[in-house]
Amino acid sequence: MGSGMNSKKILLAKPRGFCAGVDRAIEVVEMALSVCEGPVYVRKEIVHNRHVIGSLRARGVIFVEEIDQVPPGAVAIFSAHGVSPEVRRKAAAKHLQVIDATCPLVTKVHLETIRFARQGLTIILVGHKGHEEVEGTTGEAPDHIRVVGSVEEAETIMVPDPDRVAVTTQTTLGVDDANQIIEVLRRRFPKLVTPSSDDICYATQNRQAAVKILAKKADVVIVLGSRNSSNSRRLKEVSESLGTRAHLIDDCSEIDPAWFEDVCCVGVTAGASAPEHLVQELVAYFQSRGFDHVEEVETMHETVTFAPPPELLHQVSVRTKA
Questions:
Q1: Is there a single domain that holds both residue 144 and residue 173?
Q2: Which candidate in 133, 183, 237, 254 is catalytic?
Q3: What's the domain count of the chain?
Q4: Does one domain contain both 121 and 155?
Q5: Can you give the pTM of this predicted structure?
Q6: What residues make up the domain containing 120?
Q7: Where are the beta strands (DSSP E) in the chain?
Q8: Is there a catalytic annotation at residue 155?
């Protein structure tokens, strides 16, 4: 605890920030910049963070919404959120040099979806309609998938055969919300088939567990992350569900000092696509305003890493030896 009665402090969540899938996706783009001739195109945002996108754009990466905007034969990277088979077909038709930065945990959900569809099951995909990951997964078996985003939708969803239903989930959901939805589905469809292991990714779960601890100790929680980052928005919601005010910001420039009037303890975390340097800038901001005590609250130690695609590693090693 702080040394004096009036000591103001910052609690830093650990784990926070980059997950293994984001680390890998950014590394893939950086490796592509170092070995590929000509411009590197990325379909959609490689990860959902304004600062990450800005820094890669400054290094020459060209972000596009769709494959149609990439010139034939060029290098095209698929984002961490995954793509549908239709996008892959379009890329092949244009003879693009595709580098796939899809997070392996998203790929796992795609493979489950394909397996369930082959078994003739109706697949209920718990997730947010319109999110890139959900669109990519749905594309694997559009005729089999129904997207459900709330308990209310889970209560009313109709399926051809209630005895032949499976469930998968978006990897960046709120754990508690997803569990509530799945409980409803289990009640309505007692023979519900579930994946062999949890679809919500380890990093999403760990960051939510850490922010719960923060929310119990802090007067207000600041989440660093972009508005279009699903896992960052969930961190804000988790804090608020425990009755603690929370604000989602991209960086210090979005802070309103009024948030911290009469606040003695501020909690800080970062979504899975937010760089650590933004956390350190935020800590410096608070330290300059009298929050002189910084304490890291570690809920668990993360050791997960994902290797880049083998063909890209090969290119890098060839280039290095040359």
A1: yes
A2: 133
A3: 3
A4: yes
A5: 0.95
A6: 105-188
A7: 9-14, 40-43, 62-64, 75-78, 97-100, 122-126, 145-148, 165-169, 220-224, 245-249, 265-270, 293-298
A8: no
